[in-house]
């Protein structure tokens, strides 16, 4: 069986299926007849025993002093708590709930009690309790568990969706591929999958009920195909494609030490997007000139407890040390929309992508924001730091951020802590930011165009929605015009222009972006050498001509044809 999907992280994986059934809408809220209650109570006991034993098994692989082990211990204590077990049994017996409903109800009550205590640690626990409850419910409804720490090597996870926070908990060393029914190239889970080099398909309309756990699976995340029970010929063909991809990768290594410039010497800076410190270790392998985007919220998602100012300071210092003098562009935490942090209790919003996102969130949580700003300012004593703010639309927001930075500096002076110079930039990722650039540029040293959100907000098209992916691509006339306008505006004000959105990692767009006047591209580590190869093929004047042609095109397909023709 072959099912088409969108390849969002290139590569080929051969392995076995680990299917995670979604739980949505399966909870039955009807009261049960008394005759069924005893059966539900037994199901609950079995589910509790199954989850307890799975968790105990996964603890065997962990160091007792690790964070993860302590979490697991806390989960076990809860599952073995006799009062809780009694409460669950009573919810079934007295309220006539199904076992799953009793779990949902009781765990939600306990989580709320933790939140009400209003200390950060207990808020974290609230999220853990809810997630433990979900795991129990999954066992009750599907008979299977989401306990992924025990999955076999070469597992290919196939499911409806995985949030960035869930991705952060996957045992990546055992995951060789990922297939999701939702999502697209610019979704944050796709960005994480690329960073981790996991071949991934998204928007893949596979029927999860037709794929058996353990079934042989091939993920062709080059041509965009999921193959269930591949034939010997298909496996052989994919093994050849895998070998060819490897050879292409080796071939690209020759570009590592080449200058990042067009044939006629027009220089572009080529930096990398990263989501964690360990990725910085790989920058030298591809000859990146620094970090053009450090998505710091991923570091918050990976941590069970929020890193405090000191921990963040050490982390940024480590990053600067690894970079050995090259620039580190730190984007302050960009939470909200699909990026939730388990350790922060974030309010549920009707339209999170249009809600408390980016600086809107951090400005409304000044203590959290200032801890990060102080950590960054202090780390700037040890290297070249560029400080960048996400989702700034309006000069007032920028002024509010800069005034907090002044406050932070004063606090550091008072505390006799040193800090260094930083330059300031914003991610231009909404149409309002483009339109309002004139008023903000005098306060900025650089801008970085975030095409992922710029496309989402310009097209009013959710970047993770599988139904919209083909119709609202980044390479479209409206987006190209907004990019052109941002570049012209910034250049007129002598402000440097970078691009950190995924369009920068698309070789079809490289010549166009150079022709439009971009100074710097910040791309995923996996794409960096390919982008360098592409830009060294071009002469600057040809890029300018291409950009002039592209700017007057009004149709998406014509634009695509032009750029594909130039690239091939
Ligand atoms: C963007 O929106 O283009 C961007 C770089 O930010 P993120 O993908 O993290 O939202
Ligand atoms: Mg963005």
Q: What can you tell me about this protein's structure?
A:
With 568 residues, this protein is an alpha/beta fold. It folds into 3 domains: 109 residues, Phosphohistidine domain (Glucose Oxidase, domain 1, 3-Layer(bba) Sandwich); 109 residues, PtsI, HPr-binding domain (Enzyme I, Chain A, domain 2); 312 residues, Phosphoenolpyruvate-binding domains (TIM Barrel, Alpha-Beta Barrel). It is built from 23 helices and 16 strands. A hairpin with a 4-residue loop joins strand 7 and strand 8. Helix 1 crosses helix 5, helix 14 packs across helix 15 and helix 20 packs across helix 22. The protein is globular, with a radius of gyration of 25 Å. The chain starts with a strand and ends with a helix. 45% of the residues are buried. Magnesium ion binds next to helix 18.
Summarize it.
This protein has helices at residues 34-59, 67-79, 82-95, 99-116, 120-142, 164-167, 188-195, 232-252, 277-280, 283-286, 296-302, 309-323, 359-363, 366-379, 395-414, 431-435, 437-440, 451-459, 477-492, 510-516, 528-536, 540-551, 556-567, and strands spanning 2-4, 6-9, 12-20, 155-159, 175-180, 200-202, 216-220, 225-228, 269-274, 291-295, 328-331, 385-389, 422-428, 446-449, 496-499, 520-524. It is an alpha/beta fold and 568 residues long. The protein folds into 3 domains: 2-19 and 160-250, 3-Layer(bba) Sandwich (Glucose Oxidase, domain 1), CATH 3.50.30; 34-142, PtsI, HPr-binding domain (Enzyme I, Chain A, domain 2, Orthogonal Bundle); 256-567, Phosphoenolpyruvate-binding domains (TIM Barrel).
């Amino acid at each position: 069986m072959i099912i088409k999907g969108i390849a969002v992280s290139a590569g080929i994986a051969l392995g076995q299926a680990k299917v995670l059934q979604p739980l949505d809408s399966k909870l039955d809220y009807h009261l049960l007849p008394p005759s069924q209650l005893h059966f539900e109570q037994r199901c609950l006991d079995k589910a509790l025993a199954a989850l307890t034993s799975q968790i105990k098994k996964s603890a065997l692989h962990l160091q007792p002093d690790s964070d993860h082990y302590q979490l697991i211990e806390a989960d076990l204590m809860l599952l073995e708590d006799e009062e809780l077990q009694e409460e669950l049994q009573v919810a079934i017996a007295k309220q006539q709930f199904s076992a799953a409903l009793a779990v949902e109800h009781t765990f939600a009550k306990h989580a709320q009690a933790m939140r009400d205590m209003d200390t950060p640690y207990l808020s974290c626990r609230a999220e853990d309790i809810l997630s433990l409850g979900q795991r129990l419910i999954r066992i009750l409804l599907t008979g299977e568990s989401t306990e992924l720490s025990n999955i076999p090597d070469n597992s290919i996870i196939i499911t409806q969706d995985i949030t960035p926070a869930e991705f952060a908990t996957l045992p990546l060393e055992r995951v060789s591929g990922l297939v999701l029914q939702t999502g697209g190239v610019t979704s944050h889970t796709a960005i994480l999958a690329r960073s981790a080099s996991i071949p991934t398909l998204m928007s893949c309309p596979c029927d999860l009920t037709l794929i058996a756990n353990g079934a042989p699976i091939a993920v062709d995340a080059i041509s965009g195909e999921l193959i269930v029970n591949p034939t010997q010929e298909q496996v052989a063909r994919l093994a050849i494609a895998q070998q060819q991809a490897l050879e292409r990768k080796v071939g690209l290594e020759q570009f590592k030490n080449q200058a990042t410039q067009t044939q006629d010497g027009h220089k572009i800076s080529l930096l990398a997007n990263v989501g964690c410190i360990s990725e910085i270790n790989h920058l030298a392998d591809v000859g990146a000139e620094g970090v053009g985007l450090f998505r710091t919220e991923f570091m918050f998602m990976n941590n069970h407890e929020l890193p405090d100012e000191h921990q963040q300071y050490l982390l940024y210092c480590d990053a600067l040390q690894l970079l050995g003098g090259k620039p580190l562009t730190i984007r302050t935490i960009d939470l909200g929309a699909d990026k939730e942090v388990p350790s922060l209790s974030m309010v549920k919003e009707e339209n999170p992508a249009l809600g408390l996102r980016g600086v809107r969130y951090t400005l409304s949580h000044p203590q959290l924001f200032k801890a990060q700003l102080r950590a960054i300012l202090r780390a700037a004593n040890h290297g070249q730091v560029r400080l960048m703010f996400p989702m700034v639309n309006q000069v007032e927001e920028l002024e509010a951020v800069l005034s907090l930075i002044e406050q932070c500096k004063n606090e550091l002076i008072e505390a006799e802590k040193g800090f260094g110079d930083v330059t300031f930039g914003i991610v231009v990722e909404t149409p309002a930011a483009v339109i309002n650039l004139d008023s903000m540029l005098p306060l900025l040293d650089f801008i970085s165009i975030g095409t992922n959100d710029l496309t989402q907000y310009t097209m009013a098209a959710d970047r993770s929605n599988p139904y919209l992916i083909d119709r609202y691509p980044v390479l479209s006339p409206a987006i190209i015009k907004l990019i052109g306008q941002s570049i012209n505006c910034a250049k007129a004000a002598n402000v440097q222009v970078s691009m950190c959105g995924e369009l920068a990692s698309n070789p079809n767009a490289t010549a166009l972006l150079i022709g439009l006047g971009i100074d710097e591209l910040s791309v995923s580590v996996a794409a960096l050498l390919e982008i360098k190869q592409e830009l060294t093929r071009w002469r600057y004047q040809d890029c300018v001509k291409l950009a002039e042609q592209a700017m007057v095109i009004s149709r998406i397909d014509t634009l695509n044809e032009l750029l594909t023709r130039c690239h091939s």
